[in-house]
Amino acid sequence: MFKRTRHRGYKTEPLRSPLRPFYMMFIGFVFAGLLAGCSLAGDSVTYVIVTGEPPADGQPPIGQVGQAPQDVVGQSIAQTIPTLPPTATPIPPTPTSDVDPQTALQMGDRYLFDGYLENAVLSYQNVLARDEAAPELRAAAAFNMGQAALREGLFDESVSALTTLITTFPNDTRIPQAYFLRGDAYLGLSEWQLALDDFRQYLALRPGLVDSYAYERIGDAQVALGALPDALNSYTAAADAGRSLAPGLALREKVARVYLTSGQIEQAVAQYDAILAVAENAPYRAQIEYAAASALLEGGQTELGLNRMQRVMDEYPATAQAYDALGVLLENGRTVNAYQRGRIAYFNGAYQEAITAFNEFTTETLLSGIPAELHLLLGRAYREVGNPEAALVAFQTIVEQYPTDPLFGEALLEQGRTRFLAGEIDQAIERYLAIASTYSTLTPTAAEALWRAGYLYTTNGRPEQGIPIFEQLADLYPNTTQAASGLAIAASAALTAGNDLAAENLFGRLAATSSGTDAASAYLQLGRLALERGEQSLAQQAFDQAAAAAPDSYFGARARDLVAGRAPFTPPAQYVFTFDELAEITAAEDWLRQTFAVTQEGPLWPLSPQLEADAGLLRARELWTVGVFDAAETEFFDVLERYEEDGLASYQLAVFLRSIGALSPSLQGAANVITASGVGTLDAPRYIARMRYPAYYRDEVLRLAQEYEFDPLLLFALIRHESLFDTYATAAAGEKGLTQVIPDTAAYIAEQLNWPDYQHSDLFRPYAGIAFGAFFLNENLDRFDGNIYAALAGYNAGPGRAIDWLEISGGDPDLFMAAITIESTQLYVQRIYSHHSIYRVLYGAPE
Length: 847
Known about the structure:
single chain; 847 residues; 1% strand; globular
């Protein structure tokens, strides 16, 4: 086990970029070197590097798939960059003139991959300054430096490097992309005409691939130059040139706004209509419809504008735009019936307003013209404003007057829920049981009523009354989701009450009547109960069934650990990070032939002619090359989705995407292969499994794991779950980077690490994202004395909640999981557990 100590962190000098980073676009040819192993001091863990043979003819190039890194750059980098002591800055030294150009180029690629952009620029400058460097090395250094400097916001340096490539190596195949990148650098320098010229030159050299993005940039330059009519033409050309759906819609919105600015209302509305012709998401459509209506009103076309406001209200009543449209219509003298006003008010949280409108409608309308939905929404609105008795009257109206309406069962259940929300637990249970008894033929309603009654009994201190309800539910409605959930709750309640016999019976029923994770969780508990009785054989059988039911799940992983007598999150005795890739590729492709009936001869990894010619993939590859990574990833995922059921195509895509550094899409491609095969990850060939569970940014992870003295596989598992190795991942709450640190926590960590001039965008640097996540993980491990369950729960939900759950569980890992009251946190810990279990097999020496 790892020795636990507290560390105070280290000083660093982060690098920031004013641009969204242009990342990893050219790293395929040295990618394996970035994954090379490193020797770390200390006797707490051993890192084993298993070397492989160089690839034979017909095998993927080493750099394309991470093969035998010592044969490419691993040795030279290891010889040049010393292992850093725990308190040192994580920024490696820049190469000096005594480093040969090939090594300096490779070091630059590594710095860029890990996010050390200034070091990358200096490395490439080192190569360019060496007259003895081979032309191909100097050309590569010029192109790569242009990208690195652009990412760092060093626009002058980017222009200089790309100009060197264009003028000195005019026959280089990257010349068109160099013009595109230099155009972006000129935009950064506000050199609008020069940028415009470069993008036009790119279009002349590479027409038909990513014209939309070049035209958009031309339009941006023309706007800056004050040539608005020209800009509109360019933006229209960009919109018409074609993109994948989401980027294309965003562009049309931009074009519409420019038309509005120039007073061209009809053209703006035409762009909005083009969006509506393809957009399917209802809330987004509501936004666009409202924007079109507002444009017409602003342009003086009042009647047309109001008609479109009416459309917003009619078609999207549950949106904020509908509420705004309602206000516009009323202000302009349009009549809106009270029922419609009530619905829109209710969906937007204006409950008293909804009540007034609904009651107005009922006084003006014959009973036959009042829909059941009005009473349902009226009842809910009354409940929201604190009038449960009026709510019950509204729901009872549906029961009495609309017995055949589809909302009949929902109204019944709302009566019980109203009692529950009013704090009348016994009355709620009584009502639910009455519903189940009286309306037993209404399967969805009766099953839900029984489940709610059992749940209220069980969670209010009366499990002995709740358990029989759940058993009745399973007897009467065995094929419902409520039955499986009820058996799980009942079994857990019996287990907590110390009634092991009843718990075993209930878990047995759940295992026999469910599948997937439900069955796996039940078999896991059956195995634990058998172990407690000393019935090893029966326990082994149950654990095996758990692993078979859901092999990649937490329950399957936990069962395998219990079978092995292994504590949760046990690290391997040795780590293996490089492999005999030739043998593993051969085994993987033999498996692919057998699994997917592939008859193709020769190596399977190269892209097929069909994929090579795929328009989406061609466009995505070009976008990746010119640094438009958001759009490129969108295109890559679209291609992956189209081929997700084709195991061979998914394999080829995974290998190709890994070769160019498109890490998250590559991972998805490997996942598609395994899913299509119908096996668990650990039953797939190791080569494919490791693409699904990769060890990218290994040097950074290993160094930090050594510094903080925790298992590096735990950090890999956390990164995989948090970001799928997308260093630019951003979540709704502002979490950023590989380890998804939230702003407030990141600011605190920056202070602890003495991180100078911290900005939250620093987390987009791979080395910084990993460093911040490692610090916070280590702090939680220290806080909880190495309890990884509690540390992960604290990382996700905050340490205060984790302390409460730890006290409830008494330190037992399985009881801790049961004590977690936030479903997303429970799932978070479970998934990282299962990820770690897979990483342990894939990167641990066989025991």
